[in-house]
Amino acid sequence: MTTEQTSAPEQGTQGTDLEQLIDSCLATAESRYEDWDTLGFQAAKGGDKFKRAQIRYIGSGATGDHTTDDRILQAEHFTFSNMLLPSGSVGPEHTHHDVEEVFYVLQGRVEFAVHDVEDGTKKATRVLGYRDLLRVPAGVPRSLRTVSEEDALICVIIGTPKPQLPTYPPSSEMYGVTR
Fold first, then answer.
1. pLDDT digits (tens, 9 = 90+) for 22-56
2. Measured distance CA(109)–CA(147) in Å, rounded
3. Which value, in Å, is the radius of gyration of the alpha carbons in the chain?
4. Model's pTM, two decimal places?
């Protein structure tokens, strides 16, 4: 999407091709796919419980370089994706030092945890279900796991177009793993 296209609505739509504008801002479910490879390095290190799929809509987050995927809308201020978490799957403890992350549950039940920065074994957990949301501030370690028998589907929003790679603290099962 060009700067001209994104600034047109703010300045009015006169002279703008509205059909082109709306198409350039649209990401349909049928054009998305489940990317099981992006986080595959975690499953390779820790086993199938870390297997999760990312379904990208806006930007690609910190999970890799997907700039050649023309189905993804370019991020200007945040990223937006869905994450498919099979029953029993785990998102390991990790920290986004530069940005907040928001989780919004669409399906299933997911236990989210925030961990103590100094001692990651100390944590607070909450189980979230349909239409529940959790915002985790930058610098706070977080983890998650599906606790429902059904797969979970969550929206993940990261508050910058290209976040730094997350880190895995010593208490994380992924400590020492690099992308």
1. 999 999 999 999 999 999 999 999 999 999 999 99
2. 6
3. 17
4. 0.87
